Amino acid sequence: MNENIGAEDLETVAFEIGVVVPKSLGNNKDGDETDDCVEVLVDEFRKTGLIVDRVIGLQNEFLRLGAPLKTLGQAAAELQLKKRTHIGVDLQFHWDEVEAYERQPDGSLFSWFERYCCYRHIIYGIVNTSTSTVILKSDGNEVHWEPGKPLLRTLESMGIVKEVFPVHDETKRKQLLRSWALNWWDFTVQPIDDICNYYGTKIASYFAFLGMYTRWMLFPAAFGVTVQLVDFGSLQLFVLSAFFISIICWAVLFFQFWKRKNSALLVRWQMNYPAVDNESKYLEGEWYQFQSPVELMKKQGADKTDKPRGKEAFQREEWLGHFMRFRNDAMIILSIICLQLPFELAFAHVYEVLRSDASKFCLTAVYLFIIQYFNKIGGKISVKLVKYENNKNIERRADSWVYKVFGLYFMQSYIGIFYHALLHRNIMTLRQVLIQRLIISEVLENMLENSLPYLKYSLKKYRAVGNKRKREKGTSSEKTQYMSRVEKEYLKPDYSASIGEELEDGLFDDFLELALQFGMIMMFACAFPLGFAFATLNNITEIRTDALKLLAMLRRPIPRPDATIGAWLNIFQFLIVMSICTNCILLVCLYDHEGKWKISPGIAAILIMEHVLLLLKFLFSRIVPEEPAWIKANRMKNATHVHDMCSRQLLRSISGEKMHELKKDE
């Protein structure tokens, strides 16, 4: 612990950024540390107003950085961040007018994403302002800090600064553990505002969606248990039809009300979509900083002095982007049809031919092993294709990538089930496959999802302690040095996606699991109504295990500015339409007492029901507004208020100019 840090600062300022540097080996023979790289870096950090806490680890030294509110405010003003004012308008931030801006739900001035942007701006904004190169030293080696170059970038390129990463705030982390991860009695209730303040709007949106989705699942779960366990005799087809119609209406209404809730969350979290879309960029895998609109206009070539050229350039860029996306989507679809579809059909056929359960289990294990490589290859190809598309920002690129990759998972998850349902028409085999996919696969995925990060961390920790012991072997070592909290966080794995980590974080895997589950229980609801009950139990557990994973097993994720579920909303909507078609096919293929399906004469009525449900989906999406009335009223009120203020200010300006002219004439 650095002696220059006051006790008051340590208690009031949260350390949220960690910088990893080499551990000092004491090789400076002259004893002069004024030109040492780490010492100069620490001194420059403190000059910017940051509070630095130096922690000596087993292998490295860790610089924990914290910032007083004034330091963050000045950085936000330099970045020209836009913040919500008390009159409901987003204006450029000025530290001198700090009282004019609204606070976050927890009372803080800046969100975690805004604080992270400010930290990055401060630490990467330290440049050599002199006209000559500064010579620094690191373990006897010289480092040249050239004029105008950022110090941190220079040290990163030399391998002296190993990593910069967000660190957990222990006070808030423990509070979230008690009120969220370990609070099993509240089932789906979560402290969403606290999650937003600590992890950012994107992760908070995921958990808000998961909690609402799980609460709404209670109705189809209860209905499904009744349909599955009660024998309705000759009315079984009628009950299945009623169940099918009810879950379609349930799904459409759920997503309409989710849009309403998401709109309310956007207002509560003071989200400004234009600012996010136009003023943020993703640099080297991280949401880095804001760009001013002037810089963006220059970058895009939209110069007002050349209007015709700007219009043509925008049109050419727009249609080129559409063409590139269409070409890439067509390539992915053809690859899925020509390569993945035959493989999936072959697996489904062999699975149907095998009689032994042990053989089926071994075949499934081999299939899952092979398909992991298919997914990784498909994810890498999709990342390369997305790079050639004209997407505005990283969230748009991520959405485009999600659409492509979900096609791979959709094929591998459902083609085998379609094969059993349509060709073999074996209801017992279909139910076995659904049970395996819903129960066994989800249990295994949850176990792997939560055990792998811990195993990776344990292995890194074991290696670090082992290397420390090897170095101290045969020497007179001092007291046993325990691993510090920040070093433990450094050894923990990132919250990254299983594939495509260049564009997505761990939310991809979490949303993918939900989407595949939703498709499974919806598209084959008539064949296995009990699936909704299993999904509900899994989601209740998922809320707490995902929270525990984030708080205890992984590093603190880098915040993302988006506050919606993005491309996944359209994917869920697509799965609803698919479920209408598949369940109608299941109802057409009625099964007899022996478990073999036969064609029913009621096909005309079922086809009519299919078209009616598609119409109901469209009507419900129009009847239930996506935005609550109070949000529209507040927007109109704020707009009127701003208009009145601008009108009064303009009148004062006109009156002042007129009085000035009269006095001048006199």
TrEMBL record:
Locations listed in the record: Membrane
Entry membrane topology: Multi-pass membrane protein
Transmembrane regions: 203-223, 235-258, 330-351, 357-374, 401-422, 514-535, 565-593, 599-620
Protein name: Anoctamin-like protein At1g73020
Domain Anoctamin transmembrane: 195-637
PANTHER family: ANOCTAMIN (PTHR12308)
Main location: membrane
Pfam families for this protein: Anoctamin
Organism: Solanum pennellii
Record flagged with keyword Acetylation: no
Keywords: Membrane, Transmembrane, Transmembrane helix
